[in-house]
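Sequence only, no structure available. Ideas?
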Amino acid sequence: MYERFVPPCGGQPQFEPKEVSSLSESNAYRLNSKEVARATEEWMTRRGVSKGQIGQLVMLLQKDYFPELTLDECIANVEAVLSKREVQNAVLTGIQLDMLAEERKLLPPLQNMIENDEGLYGCDEVLALSIVNVYGSIGFTNFGFIDKFKPGVLKKLNEKNGKDVHTFLDDIVGAIAAAASSRIAHRKQAEREEKEEAVLPGDGSGEE
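Reply:
I predicted one. Tokens follow.
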């Protein structure tokens, strides 16, 4: 930074380096992780989506594979997905874009594409896939299924009522459910392997 210095004899103004105080450095931007997590949950609630509703989507995706699965377990896995910073970033970004489109504060043609959920506009799905990827490629199948059939809360989010815009949020909610389903599948596999390994040494077969 520089400050203007005018010589007393009326000469040309000169600019000299201005010392940066340590105070300005102490005021540098710092992200509050707890605030980001709180805002993520708050904005999802404001937009009409609860963790319980996403948990129901997870149950739909996984109940045939794990009959003993409970809704509480599904919700716990949804919460685990939402604790990831990259997921929080995607949620906040998508919701803000939806809201800007509702308020018609975007410039055309982007305003029209998001407002009408244009079929060839795929940025909403690209953002959602960043969530699916958190727990590996297994989530793509789950995401494809619920994105096609739009069950549960996704049906409501996908409705075009001329007022609400959920172009990003419907894909994001589906992606969270798909990621939570992937997390369950990975954990169930790990639990099964642990049980098998625990049985092998003392199975009484006499085999080594």
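The longest helix spans residues 167-199.
Hope that gets you unstuck.
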